Amino acid sequence: MADAPKRTVTLTDDQNGQSWKLPVLDGTEGPSVIDIRKLYGETGYFTHDPGFTSTSSCESKITFIDGDKGILLHRGYPIDQLANKSDFLEVAYLLQYGELPNPTEKQDWVKHITYHTMVHEQLSSFFSGFRRDAHPMAIMCGVVGALSAFYHDSTDIHDPVQREVACHRLIAKMPTLAAMAYKYSIGQPFVYPQNNLSYAENFLYMCYSVPAEPYKINPVLAKAMDKIFILHADHEQNASTSTVRLASSSGANPFACIAAGITSLWGPAHGGANEAVLKMLMEIGSKDKIPEIVRRAKDKSDSFRLMGFGHRVYKNYDPRAKVMQETCREVLAELGIKNDPLLETAMELERVALQDDYFVQKKLYPNVDFYSGIILRAMGFPMSMFTVLFALARTAGWVSHWQEQFGEGGEQKIGRPRQLYTGATERDFVPVDKRK
Ligand code: CMC
Asked: Which of 244, 309, 314, 320 to mutate to test the pocket of ligand 1 (most atoms within 8 A of CB)?
């Protein structure tokens, strides 16, 4: 728990001069918060904050972001160090348990995850119920929610062992389900996981191998895939993570909660932005169209926004975007792609936007999605799979936040926001023949 409040702020009602002292809580990093839990009971007022721009929704020890400085820490470790020195499963362990694993813990953890990668055979028949041209995110919403119909022995949220097994299963099975969604869309047979491969290698194997011939893993691409997973693993109380927490607050089972997170991630303002960025870069086509696209992004009468730019929390360069840009170069070099027109357009767009007063004043910088689509496309993924890969990686964060709600300092109270009601006041029902 945060330390007991040492100071207060005073809220005064200007109408009648009445005032109330509200406790201030300090975290270990970041802004302090005004504790308003008793506000309504004591004052009769709610607070009003649509979009939660000034609201802390929970206490958490998992991830810290300093948006002004462009800092992202998981359990205290900077994201660039994790991306360059760790691996995805180690980061997933760190998010979940709070510390990096020692060698024995790591071995056990990797084994646990690896041996949960297969999905119930009956689950395969779910896929054939979808149209072949279904968006893979639509499939993921369905099949991840359906896991709760298959793994009854890990849905009792009051049993810590079942909760842990559910987390293992979700981290382990997401690549298998994501690869199945991909294979289904291209009409190829599903490929079973291989336990001798790493998490990222296995995912590439399940996506790109076919039963008819051997498949050779490219270590540079596998490393890049792993880095992309790390960069997407968690990001504090974003829309999808908050959705998972809210869904869980009602006591819903873990698979249903993660399915809720997937639906929230899908939107273009969140995880769907990587797909939207690539569509935008393709539409721009050549550098000479950039001034026009920047003009449109600034025009208030046009709903168009520069996709992959701006962030609710970062008012500086997104630290994930920096690593992503380096990874992009490594992947394109490995694949022998010289002068990729999309990368060139993206870099020129970034250069132009970062010199433009509008973007400078509003502190709009490239975010994690700006370069990821270029890498994923070069690796062979269709655009529709980009957000699926985001969901796969973010599952590590979602399950950690889900677990945190049950631990010390966790909030198991049902999430129930209130509202500022501006509708009709009470009136009497009018029978249909009397209505004008
Ligand atoms: N292009 C043009 N103008 C922008 C953009 C943009 N990409 N982003 C923000 N603005 C403007 C916006 O019009 C507003 O201007 P004004 O104050 O004059 O009304 C101002 O900047 C603040 O924007 P906001 O919408 O109030 O900020 P927000 O914190 O609610 O939205 C955002 C954050 C990420 C939804 C938004 O920046 C955006 O839509 N970006 C494009 C989509 C995108 O790249 N999303 C991925 C986010 S990172 C991955 C993830 O976390 O899922």
From this structure: 309
